[in-house]
Amino acid sequence: MSAADGDGGCLEARLARLESAQAIRNLVGLYALGADRRNDPEIFSGLYTADAVWEAAGFGRFEGRERIVAELARIGRETIVWTLHYMTSPIVEIDAGGEGARCRWWLWELSKIADRPGAAPAAHFLGGTYDTRLERTADGWRFARVTLDLPLVSPHEPGFKTRP
C-alpha cells in the first residue's frame, strides 16, 4: 500500500466503498420518491430483498418483499394519503466484506393522515429516524431490514394546501 492510499486500503477498494455508499444514498432517495407517490408499488418493489422485514410501531411489521410492498401501498391509499418526505443526513456504514451495510437517517415529513376509515385526512408533522440493513444483490443494493421510529406525530391544525 502506498502512502497515497492511506489507511483505507487499495484505491480500488476505497472506490468500491464510495460507489456503494452513493448507491445506498440513491436507494434512500428512491424510497422517499416512492413514499411521496403514495407508497408506489412499482418503485417500492425494487427496493427490498425477497426476505426483507419492514417495521414501525403503530403501522406494523411486514415480512417479505411482496407483503411489504402490498401493506405500504395499502397504508398509502387508506391512512397516510399525502406526504412530502425529507430524508436527511444518511450515515452509511459499509461492512468490511462490502456485501452488507447499515444506513441510518433522519426523517422530517409533512403528511395528511386519515386516522380512521372514511375520515377526512388531517395535516400532520412527522419526525423520526430510519435504521436499515442492506445487502448487495445481483441487482444492486437492497433493503433487508427497515426500522422506522416516529417519536413525533403531531397534527397541524391550520392544515396544508396541497395539490391532489
Structural account:
This protein starts with 10 loop residues before the first helix and ends in a 9-residue tail after the last strand. The longest helix has 25 residues, at 11-35. A six-stranded mixed sheet has the order 2-1-6-5-4-3. Strand 1 and strand 2 form a beta hairpin. The protein has three helices and six strands. It has helices at 11-35, 41-44, 65-78; strands spanning 48-56, 60-63, 80-94, 100-113, 122-137, 140-155.
Calculate the mean pLDDT score and round it. Answer: 93
- Read across the widest sheet, the strand sequence of neighbours is 2-1-6-5-4-3
Give me the number of helical elements: 3
| Percent helix | 25-40%
What is the structural class? alpha+beta
How large is the radius of gyration? 18 Å
Given the C-alpha coordinates, what overall shape results? elongated
Distance between the termini: 57 Å
User: What is the strand tally?
Assistant: 6
In this structure, how is the largest beta sheet organized?
6 strands, mixed
Measured by DSSP, the beta-strand proportion falls in: over 45%
Q: Could you spell the SSE succession in H and E letters?
A: HHEEHEEEE
Name the poorly predicted regions.
1-5
